[in-house]
Design brief:
By secondary structure, the protein is of the alpha+beta class. The protein contains 16 helices and 7 strands. The longest helix has 20 residues, at 172-191.
Length: 432
């Protein structure tokens, strides 16, 4: 009958040493037959279990000591022996698990990688570069931070909700589009064999039961606008600032255009001789070319803007490329806070009382047209590149409409520069 090793205590095991013969030394520690502590010449220690599997003698590593304690090593050894008694070969089992893991990893695809592969495969169907960029930006901004590192087959309804819920009420339109884009990416992943089962981003019979319908969600509040009585004081504050952001803010005010249109403006789009800024369709929200008649104030302003040979942008960022939307927002925030520090009331929206933001400058222009001039409202809507009636659209496409709008934009520039009083604002006879 084989000799049974004495069961050593944890302290006795800790005191074991290599005898110094230049080879690995193994000591049976007892408690489980075949459990050994292997000690290398340089003092390294690890657990081994020597036992039979069928007719073959095998050796299994159980981890290093002291990371794996004596008690844990004995538990692991017992578990392995139990499997062997049940007819399981631990070595073959380990190989099978490793093979399954490798296969799963090859099949597996993270959501971030799925987005890239989907966009590379599908975005050619979107001829408008702006659409392609919107797809990427929306997913990159909202979905990738939460889902990017997850394997597509692991994404569930609750994961999609984690992305959508924070913006569903405040940015409903964006959230609704985002949901559709996540659904499209996951649908592509299913068809290409990277996931199976229902699409967790599907609306009908799925998210529809968990989120309010987009058309029933309260409309997003208007962007806080600069009050008309504060415009000239605000503009003086802008002109006292440093940086390219302040130039972009002033041009946005003078032209009543969107931040993204101003930040992406190119010198080649501006005809200084004719006084026309032509914004191409791919940079417009409505995907339609928009011509902006430039007032004398706007042309004088452009003459003062520094030009850089290395950039085609009218308002480049300090390190190249476009200014960020945050740059303009931060500049307006600083203006508001600086006014408060000097005892002013700051620059806040008349209705909400919230600090004005860059997009709100367009509302300021619209308020001016409605409250202090006789210019037609439809003309203001055309100037803002809003959706208008077919009749107005037909008139807008006539060349003389730009010149009619030039009169309005000149009056606006005169107002913001303090060159005209409300009583002297030009009134435009007739409608669009």
């Amino acid at each position: 009958m084989p000799k049974v090793a004495k069961e050593m205590s944890a302290l006795e095991v800790k005191r074991l040493q290599n005898p110094g013969k230049g080879t690995n030394h193994t000591v049976a520690v007892g408690g489980v037959a075949g459990l050994m502590l292997q000690i290398t010449p340089n003092g390294g220690r690890s657990w081994l279990l020597r036992t039979k599997v069928g007719v073959k003698r095998r050796e299994f590593g159980l981890g290093g000591f002291p990371e794996v304690s004596v008690a844990t090593a004995r538990d692991r050894a017992r578990d392995l022996k139990d499997k062997i008694r049940e007819g399981v070969d631990p070595t073959e089992e380990r190989k099978a698990r490793k093979a399954a893991l490798v296969a799963a990893q090859r099949r597996g695809l993270t959501f971030a990688d799925a987005v890239d592969k989907y966009l590379n495969a599908k975005l050619d169907q979107y001829k408008n570069p702006k659409h392609r960029q919107q797809w990427r930006n929306t997913l990159q901004t909202y979905a990738i931070p939460e889902l990017g590192s997850m394997l597509v087959q692991d994404i569930a309804v609750q994961d999609v909700l984690r992305v959508l819920q924070p913006i569903w009420l405040d940015k409903t339109e964006t959230a609704s589009r985002l949901r559709g884009r996540i659904e499209a990416v996951l649908s592509w992943a299913t068809v290409t064999g990277h996931r199976s089962g229902d699409n967790p981003a599907r609306w009908a019979g799925n998210l529809k039961e968990l989120l309010p319908a987009p058309n029933r969600v309260a409309k997003e509040e208007n962007h806080p606008a600069l009050q008309l009585d504060d415009v000239q004081r605000w503009l003086a504050g802008v002109r006292a600032m440093d940086g390219m952001g302040r130039y972009a803010l002033e041009f946005a005010l003078l032209t009543a255009t969107r931040s993204q249109e101003v930040r992406g403006a190119l010198w080649e789009e501006i005809d200084l001789e004719k006084g026309i800024w032509t914004i191409p369709a791919q940079r417009m929200k409505k995907e339609r070319e928009h011509r902006v008649p430039l007032s004398s104030g706007a042309l004088d302003f452009l003459a003062s803007v520094p030009r850089f040979e290395a950039s085609e942008l009218v308002f480049p960022a300090p390190r190249g490329g476009k200014l960020s939307d945050m740059t303009l927002s931060a500049a307006m925030k600083r203006l508001h806070e600086a006014d408060l520090k000097t005892g002013g009331a700051g620059y806040v929206d008349r209705v909400s009382g919230r600090p004005a933001v860059p997009h709100g400058l367009r509302s300021t222009f619209r308020d001016w047209v409605a409250e202090r001039t006789g210019f037609p409202g439809d003309m203001a809507e055309v100037a803002l590149a809003h959706k208008v009636s077919n009749a107005v659209e037909a008139a807008y496409r006539r060349g003389d409409m730009v010149e009619k709008r030039r009169t309005m934009m000149q009056a606006w520039a005169d107002f913001v520069n303090g060159s005209v009083t409300d009583s002297n604002v030009v009134s435009f006879a007739g409608s669009v």
